[in-house]
Amino acid sequence: MSSLLSVESLSCAYANHVIVEGVSFSIREGEIACLLGPSGCGKTTLLRALAGFNPVAAGSIRIQGQEVSSTSATLPPEKRQMGMVFQDYALFPHLSVADNIAFGLKNKSRAEKNEIVLSMLQLVRLPDLSKRFPHELSGGQQQRVALARALASRPRLLLMDEPFSNLDTEMRKELSLEVRDIIKQQGIAAVVVTHDQEEAFVISDVLGILADGKLQQWGTAESLYYRPESVQVAKFVGDGELFDGTCLAEARVETELGLLEFAEPLSLSPQQAIKLFIRPADISPVVYSEAHTKAQVLSREFMGEATRYRLQLDSGRAVSALVRELLPFKIGDVVGIEVAVHRPIVFPA
Ligand SMILES: Nc1ncnc2c1ncn2[C@@H]1O[C@H](COP(=O)(O)OP(=O)(O)OP(=O)(O)O)[C@@H](O)[C@H]1O
């Protein structure tokens, strides 16, 4: 598949203050990409540059090979064939749902507009709400109307800025899956901006971690989770902590948590000092025996699907463990620590 969107060495600035720096990535036809990053890292600025609302300070943006943004020219948003969904939905309050959806449909007869509005309402599963006004809709329904409006003009690329941030957790999960299905059904590409890792993992085919205006890593959710290139990326896509380690053999590392054995050899030399990034789900409290590293249960938080423990080592350091099964340990109990790392994440010491 060919590249639909290609961003090359892109920098964006407000009044000479650089916000986004040297960002490069490309997405293919039909691919959903996510830009994930903390608040203020430049996600919206980058998205607005893609949409043509902001000029670029360096680099370029191409759609299907055509340059739409460079330092010398910016193709206006309405000529880019892009649909945009904003964080606050930005529906027109004085227009009905049907008129909101039809708003961007120029050069179409009334009958054509009606047909498109109906098919969009079917697509976003709101077939009976065409006459309602935005204030008569729930947040999730408003978001669906915003999506229908963005898709009505058949864009080649859909841009979404924090589309689910105003919804509660349950709705956010449900709608992100549904929006993914709708985008896939339309066969178009999309760039979704979010600070929510779970949402990014659910909706995207590929994602980039943006921090301090720079793209830290680009890849699938699995590759970012299991093969992060930096501690910053590792922490951004899930919990975890760094532990000093010394490599004893190809697949054996001595750490503060004890001797860890891995299924696959690490490409390390004996006695090499490393840092191991270990996620709470890889650590479990067990009944203490001499063979284990000792710890004391500091706290226990039952969350339904799993229980999170804070365990204090003899050194005073506290580590998190996340276990799915119900264990009998209470606060104050002395336990052993078991570590089962399936895919070790190793950084230089
Ligand atoms: N119009 C503007 N003029 C000057 N500075 C701006 C402007 N818009 C945003 N900024 C600054 O650019 C930086 C990045 O903002 P941006 O909105 O792109 O971040 P973000 O990652 O989308 O954050 P959030 O998740 O909070 O929306 C911030 O420091 C912000 O204050």
From TrEMBL:
What residue ranges are annotated as transmembrane? Answer: none
Q: Which residues form the ABC transporter domain?
A: 5-237
Signal peptide residues on this chain, from the entry's feature table: none
How is this protein annotated for GO cellular component?
ATP-binding cassette (ABC) transporter complex
- Annotated InterPro entries: AAA+_ATPase, ABC_SmlMolc_Importer, ABC_transporter-like_ATP-bd, ABC_transporter-like_CS, ABC_transpr_FbpC, Mo/tungstate-bd_C_term_dom, P-loop_NTPase, Transp-assoc_OB_typ2
The UniProt keywords, alphabetically, are: ATP-binding, Cell membrane, Ion transport, Iron, Iron transport, Membrane, Nucleotide-binding, Transport
Q: Which GO terms describe its molecular function?
A: ABC-type ferric iron transporter activity; ATP binding; ATP hydrolysis activity
State the protein's name. Answer: Iron(III) transport system ATP-binding protein
Q: What species is this protein from?
A: Neptunomonas qingdaonensis
| Highest classification ranks of the organism | Bacteria, Pseudomonadati, Pseudomonadota, Gammaproteobacteria, Oceanospirillales
